[in-house]
Records
---
Amino acid sequence: MLTVEQQDAAAISLTKNIFQFHGIAGTRRIGAYLANDGEIDPLPAMLEWSRRGQKCFLPILFPGQKPRLRFASFSMRSRMFLNRFGILEPCVSQRVCLDPSQLDWIFVPLVAFDSSGHRLGMGGGYYDASLAVLRMRSHWRKPRLVGLAHEFQRIDHLAVDEWDVPLHGILTNERFYPAPDAAWSATHRSASRP
């Protein structure tokens, strides 16, 4: 378990790496999450995006629906509540939420990852179910999907299931791991460190 100071340092390093990405500066709509249960914290990056006039969105679970995420606009002034998993969400109506396909980037949390860009989530399947339609596209321009993690969450190999939605890469507090088959990854290697 990391100390608060270690978590804060990891979040600052992650934020620096996020802002080394080409194309993120001109992005209008960015999906992220509020860290929970030891996840690496993207909040410093979200605050900077807001300062730069970019819109941040958080995932929302609506009761009684299939495990599908919608995304609600977020700012430090957003009214929040704890969902059924104890995770903070903006308190908004479903009609003002966006589908994942309406976002330019989505930064997703994870439990573990491998250097091939495979992600192990918390086991609910919410991101995979919500992004499943993207697997059917022959040309996938947006949203760009990037997993966020602590470097120590990397493992040698993860099994991949047919329903797993591939990520474009994984960004840690130390470096970027592009997915081998992500054509766009070559232009984003500047966030990698040797």
---
Amino acid sequence: MMLYCNIRATYAQQYFEVENNHKRAYFRFQLLRDMIIVPLKINGKGPYNFILDSGVGVMIITEPTLIDSLDIHNKRLIKISGLGNNEDFDAYVTSGLHVNLPGGIRGQDISAAIFTKDHFGLSNYAGTPIYGLLGYEFFNSFTVKIDFDDSTVTVGAPKDIRIFKRGSKLPLTVEDRKPYIKTRLFLPDGKQVEDKLVVDLGAGHPLSLENLIEANKGLPDKFISANLGMGLTGPISGYLSRISEIELGKYKLKNVITSFPDSITKKDDTLSVKRDGNLGIGILKRFNLIIDYSNQVMYFKSNLLFYKPFEHDMSGIEYFCGGDNLKHIVINRVEKGSAADEIGLIKGDEIVRINFKSVQDMSIEEIDNIFKSRDDRSILLDVYRNGVYDRLILTLKRRI
């Protein structure tokens, strides 16, 4: 899932710290549908699942019921702008939150934006309750080491975080509370470009290029139309294709699935920092990372996922987790011309079983992996629609 947001506000200096004067602290995270999920407490209550997201400039609480649960009184109403098809909307800004993460990490007087309505539906997407996103204040307080091999985050001062013996080091800039790096891209037509990209751990895609269509007057030859994610003001439409290669220091990743947002919905005028695109977790998770805002540097070291091919969903189905237990798989969108479209699946259908196994006994990631497993693979689906069960054979189709 791709989350686009642009919240502009002025805050006093805020930071997190490690308790008891310890040099370092660490905690475990869960990587769920390419989101780094961390448990945290707010004002002594919780824990609440939050997404660790370097692309977010301020802590965001997406679940409006927390306003009452946390007994928040110090708040004011602001207008939020973002990327999408609709108008701006309202959110509260509050300060003075006490935030605690595992490992003895605490933040005092943290400000947050609190949605008056859940616009992202993160819980339905993840299949587990999600309450918000934690971003700049956390990354600006420490040097942050993220190890995707053992699912841990380690934080400390720069001198207390051990640098990788073998890896790559890239310059990093922090502008308008977001990190940027420059990379070299190799396009399918043979062109080479150097692009400035946001380092965005909250973006589920590998790579998004926001200006390439206009700059090169067209898309790569092979592409599909797609819903690229959700902005604060609505869905982001665009296209999916592949680029030949991206360079990150000494590392080269080939045949990378790439998103191209439609110029109508990406709204460049909302961006305070000019950029070419967005480096998402689809690439970042293939490395263990050290992100150091204070020294303006980022370290990459390839991990066990580095050589895994880039694959996209081959079913053409977008689905969410519904019901009180978030265990019902409901189709939200079917891509025209896709494998799912060809067998007549439509929005609102509920997938009950996959290859005779109840979806309630499967994780959402198991389901994702089946739908992007292999071109021309046949999958048996039991589907519920309007009180009637049907059994269908879905044959996966790689379209990019």
